[in-house]
Design the sequence.
């Protein structure tokens, strides 16, 4: 099964990457973009096939390693 | 590709082999090759691996000197530093990949050249990078600059090798073909150099590093084929670098090299496992048998063809002493790297590849190596341009000219670039980027190494022989200007399509000029790299033979930089007054003209002037030194002032025409000496036959010529401002 | 003074730190491998700069969980001095030994150059060799040095005099222009509650030898030697 | 409206990030993870409210800036 983890910056934390992308899009002439936030997307291939059973372990991975909860949130989806 | 894929004439052509070359394949094999064998021929005979267009001329370059331990032919060149130490260095291009994927292309270029150096037993101690981009106002340029610089830094910073120098240039001829030339210098014990020549029938052949994937297959042939408009669309796979793994590989290899386990070692560069195994066996006159099922792979169902042609990064091949496998494995386990015994050396003179229980390729090594094509491509000498009289160049007020030169794309500070490189890690950087040559201390000693990279492609385009000569002389001069004894060079020959006689002519003449300078300056070539076909839709780049120079300082504390060290010192111009505006930066940047013959280099004068400067620096008589290059005298004065924040006042006898202030006559230096020593200094120079003139003094907060001043603050804003503003 | 330098596989300022310590104090520190679970008997532990485990996810994130860091934490709790430089600072925050995080530099680029620092407190064994308010010159070399913590955490750091250094200009002014990486309140280094752990982005070990262009880093090691013998 | 862009490495392209995360998860004692791939997740706030109309422009942004299609794929979803 696949665990799809999105790690995003908490609201209120400045996102220099997102800002730079926004700026670059404008410079390229794309208008109508009002804001950009950039995060990480991590796909884990896991042996467990039951999402309910898998969730606690993946949450633990996020808390321990994949996200820094001082500044980041994480969200987990399962697929397949 | 499955080994049963039929080898049709189309497939042969796709592999870049001409019908003639394919006939030779058939002759050597005595049968039609299968697809894996064809792939091996194709990469081994590619321009990149075989140097088929360039070999004839490279052979003419001088490569020997008493201090050269190993010249061209190995992974990198080796020179003696005395006290049991040796410097190992080389420069290599990653031009095409960097155009397609600037970050990864440049990053893997750095990774590749690092491996060439630590393969030979050296700890890398310094990186340089010579970069050439299209016109600053070309729509692609900024994106390429940003990506390449980030990639060079991203890799070098992570492995922890300081990037201490380089070049950045803009010119429309590189619009579709940027140049990314990376150089690494390493230091090894002179009696512990590792070579690639395999020996010992039955010895194990070992694979270490990262796993093999499907990346970069056909990279070597890509680097040898001219670009066309649609290659951007085809977007061949480029490799992704893993600098952390490289760092582990450096440490693991050096740790194993401290034992006596390794017989021969070779990095897997272009054409990966093929060229590394082939070259090791070929040099040793042996055969090799490899079990491809044992090669660590990162993807499923990889074919023999893919495994042999993959250009996955961060991999090495070694031949071990028998019985040392466990010892070696323990080292690579410690560093958490893959380790696999994948084959053995044989006495058959053949390369035999096995997979799935059967033989998937079987080819003779020597005949293939010996029959590698070598061309004597037709060439025509370049048309020489007449000398341009200075009077034919309109004069601009010197102050305006100076501001425009130090604040334009060609003359502006490269700080924006080198501040993205960790240039201090390893704790031995004595002269940081921004001067004539970088200086690093040889760790744990009082000695130092100096390094520089130079070429003026506009000179080479105007007269390839003079330009080639000048590039070598300028590298020599930059090393001299910090007080180093120039030892040897590595070169990176970047040219257009060698099948065009006028391009081949540039190559030939550049080699001739370089060779002449190398001999006259005792500055041999010990390694190098050739990148041809830098051409898009028939538009070639300016001929660019980049010269990487390395020099030695017996006492690193005696080195000097370009920055003034105080006010009230005397400025002395050595080597004569400026006269030459043909091909100058003044003419190009301010008048948009590339005309006339480039300034000639008188090698005897070059040597005389340089030897004098070096001797005076070592005697402690010089406080700051800068050679005169792009932009001539006044740009040099301004750079010395900007580097220190201390101004200068100079006096020109009589009016100061542009040729005197901005002429690019060769073999000249500007030095700052204590005021009290100035007369003696000038006298000593004249006694040595070196024209010398007391030009003025340091001090104040402006650059002033005959009493007319431009504020340093204004120059600084222009000089430091251009690059950040351009990239913003 | 008995010092140890932790060596992660991707550390690359480990040797520099050891050289500087040996140069200033006359005694070479012990080098301790990341997989070791024990530390020798030491009174100063340096977590050096570099890219501990490649730092591909977040700088210092993986190193914070290495076997040796559990030992470093335990030692720190007994009062042993711990100095985290650059990547070492990132490791210490990820390990929870110091508050806050080091985010990507505001301008997203790696920065290597000398910066000016205002010494905010001389009340620690690391900074006793400087005067509070003194301006020193030390190089930075990092991609992720943008210090972030919630406002209340920052207030508390300030209240407890735990900001060791701030980026400033030559006159000691702490402003946006002097801030190389976007750090909150220009913070370049912070102390732990017990003041025995210091994390800082600039590299004092890089300017402790006049040949390399300056010696403003040396007083840190001299002060430690004075306290630790 | 939000455009959610996932940029992932093409199959076969080395993913040093993913490799390192995988290694670290194992070192932390999480087993049952068979593979990790890491990508970027970019959220764009756009003025356009019709996904059909927005898609071509966002695709263009991906091709021009957000992804390098030599080594990366991208996928776009719209929300809200
Ligand atoms: N890509 C680069 N990386 C590092 N340093 C660079 C780079 N480009 C230029 N520099 C540095 O900027 C300084 C000026 O470069 P350049 O004008 O080419 O010097 P010179 O004319 O003396 O050869 C040199 O110290 C050089 O090493
Ligand atoms: Mg120079």
Sequence:
């Amino acid at each position: 099964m696949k665990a799809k983890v999105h790690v995003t910056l908490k609201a209120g934390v400045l996102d220099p990457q997102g800002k730079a992308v926004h700026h670059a899009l404008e410079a390229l002439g794309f208008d109508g973009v009002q804001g950009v936030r950039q995060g990480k997307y991590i796909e884990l291939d896991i042996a467990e096939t039951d999402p309910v059973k898998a969730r606690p372990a993946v949450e633990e991975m996020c808390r321990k390693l994949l996200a820094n909860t001082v500044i980041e949130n994480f969200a987990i989806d399962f697929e397949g | 590709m499955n080994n049963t894929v039929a080898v049709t004439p189309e497939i042969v052509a796709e592999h870049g082999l001409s019908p003639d070359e394919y006939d030779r394949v058939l002759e050597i094999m005595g049968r039609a090759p299968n697809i894996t064998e064809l792939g091996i021929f194709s990469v081994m005979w590619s321009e990149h691996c075989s140097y088929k267009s360039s070999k004839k001329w490279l052979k003419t370059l001088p490569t020997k000197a008493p201090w050269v331990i190993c010249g061209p032919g190995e992974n990198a060149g080796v020179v003696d530093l005395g006290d049991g130490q040796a410097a190992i260095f080389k420069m290599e291009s990653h031009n095409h990949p960097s155009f397609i994927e600037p970050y990864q292309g440049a990053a893997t270029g750095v990774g590749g050249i690092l491996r060439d150096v630590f393969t030979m037993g050296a700890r890398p101690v310094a990186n340089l990078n010579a970069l050439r981009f299209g016109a600053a106002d070309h729509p692609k340029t900024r994106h390429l600059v940003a990506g390449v610089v980030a990639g060079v830094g991203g890799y070098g910073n992570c492995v922890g090798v300081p990037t201490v120098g380089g070049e950045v240039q803009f010119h429309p001829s590189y619009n579709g073909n940027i140049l990314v030339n990376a150089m690494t210098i390493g230091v090894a014990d002179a009696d512990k150099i590792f070579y690639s020549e395999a020996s010992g029938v039955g010895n194990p052949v070992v694979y270490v590093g990262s796993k093999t994937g499907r990346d970069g297959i056909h990279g070597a042939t890509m680097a040898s084929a001219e670009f066309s408009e649609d290659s951007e669309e085809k977007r061949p796979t480029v490799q992704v670098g893993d600098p952390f793994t490289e760092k582990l590989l450096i440490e693991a290899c050096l740790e194993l090299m401290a034992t006596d386990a390794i017989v021969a070692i070779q990095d897997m560069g272009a054409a990966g496992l093929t060229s590394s195994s082939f070259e090791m066996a070929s040099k040793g006159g042996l055969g090799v048998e490899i079990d491809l099922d044992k090669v660590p792979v990162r993807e499923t169902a990889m074919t023999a063809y893919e495994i042999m042609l993959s250009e996955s990064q961060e991999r090495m091949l070694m031949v071990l002493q028998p019985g040392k496998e466990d010892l070696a494995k323990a080292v690579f386990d410690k560093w958490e790297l893959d380790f696999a015994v994948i084959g053995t050396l044989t006495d058959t003179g053949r390369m035999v590849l096995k997979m799935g229980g059967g033989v998937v390729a079987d080819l003779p090594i020597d005949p293939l190596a010996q029959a590698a094509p070598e061309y004597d491509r037709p060439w025509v000498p370049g048309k020489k341009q007449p000398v341009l009289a200075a009077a034919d160049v309109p004069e601009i007020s010197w102050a305006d000219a100076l501001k425009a030169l130090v604040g334009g794309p060609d003359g502006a500070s490269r700080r924006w670039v080198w501040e993205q490189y960790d240039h201090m890690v390893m704790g031995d950087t004595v002269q940081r980027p921004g001067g004539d040559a970088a200086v690093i201390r040889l760790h744990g000693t009082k000695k130092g190494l100096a390094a520089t990279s130079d070429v003026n492609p506009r000179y080479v385009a105007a007269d390839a022989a003079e330009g080639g000569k000048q590039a070598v002389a300028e590298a020599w001069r930059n090393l001299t200007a910090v007080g180093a004894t120039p030892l040897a060079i590595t070169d990176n020959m970047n040219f257009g399509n060698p099948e065009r006689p006028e391009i081949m002519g540039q190559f030939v003449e550049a080699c001739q000029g370089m060779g002449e300078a190398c001999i006259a300056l005792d500055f041999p070539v010990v390694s190098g790299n050739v990148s041809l076909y830098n051409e898009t839709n028939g538009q070639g780049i300016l001929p660019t033979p980049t010269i990487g120079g390395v020099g030695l300082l017996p006492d690193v504390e005696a080195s000097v930089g370009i920055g003034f060290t105080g006010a009230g010192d005397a400025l002395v111009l050595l080597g004569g007054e400026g006269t030459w505006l043909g091909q100058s930066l003044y003419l190009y940047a301010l008048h948009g003209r590339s005309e006339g013959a480039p300034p000639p280099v008188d090698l005897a004068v070059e040597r005389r002037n340089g030897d004098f400067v070096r001797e005076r620096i070592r005697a402690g008589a010089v406080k700051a030194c800068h050679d005169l290059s792009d932009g001539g005298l006044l740009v040099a004065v301004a750079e010395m002032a900007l580097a220190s924040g201390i101004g200068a006042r100079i006096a020109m006898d009589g009016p100061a025409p542009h040729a005197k202030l901005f002429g690019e006559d060769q073999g000249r230096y500007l030095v700052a000496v204590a005021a009290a020593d100035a007369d003696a200094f000038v006298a000593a120079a004249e006694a040595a036959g070196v024209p010398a003139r007391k030009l003025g003094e340091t001090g104040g907060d402006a650059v002033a010529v005959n009493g007319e001043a431009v504020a340093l603050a204004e120059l600084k804003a222009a000089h430091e401002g251009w690059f950040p503003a351009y990239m913003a | 003074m008995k010092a140890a330098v932790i060596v992660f596989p991707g550390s690359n300022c480990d040797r520099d730190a050891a050289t500087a310590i040996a140069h200033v104090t006359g005694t070479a520190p012990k080098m301790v491998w990341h997989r070791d679970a024990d530390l020798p008997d030491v009174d100063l532990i340096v977590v050096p700069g570099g890219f501990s485990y490649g730092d591909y996810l977040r700088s210092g994130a993986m190193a914070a969980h290495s076997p040796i860091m559990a030992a470093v934490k335990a030692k720190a709790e007994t009062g042993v001095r711990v100095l985290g430089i650059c990547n070492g600072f990132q490791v210490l925050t990820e390990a929870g030994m110091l508050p806050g995080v080091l985010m990507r530099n505001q301008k997203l680029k790696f920065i290597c150059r000398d910066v000016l620092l205002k010494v905010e407190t001389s009340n620690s064994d690391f900074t006793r060799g400087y005067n509070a308010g003194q301006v020193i010159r030390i190089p930075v070399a990092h991609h992720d040095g943008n210090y972030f913590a919630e406002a209340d955490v920052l207030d508390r750091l300030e209240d407890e005099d735990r900001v060791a250094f701030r980026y400033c200009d030559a006159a000691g002014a702490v402003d946006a222009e002097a801030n190389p990486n976007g750090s909150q309140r220009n913070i370049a280094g912070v102390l732990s509650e017990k003041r025995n752990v210091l994390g800082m982005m600039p590299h004092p070990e890089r300017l402790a030898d006049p040949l390399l262009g300056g010696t403003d880093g040396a007083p840190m090691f001299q002060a430690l030697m004075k306290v630790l013998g």
Notes: The mean pLDDT of chain B is 94. Residues B 129, 131, 163, 165-168, 414, 417-418, 433-436, 454, 478, 629-630 surround adenosine-5'-diphosphate (ligand 1) (CB under 6 Å). DSSP finds 26 helices and 28 strands in chain B. Chains B and A do not touch (no CB pair under 8 Å).
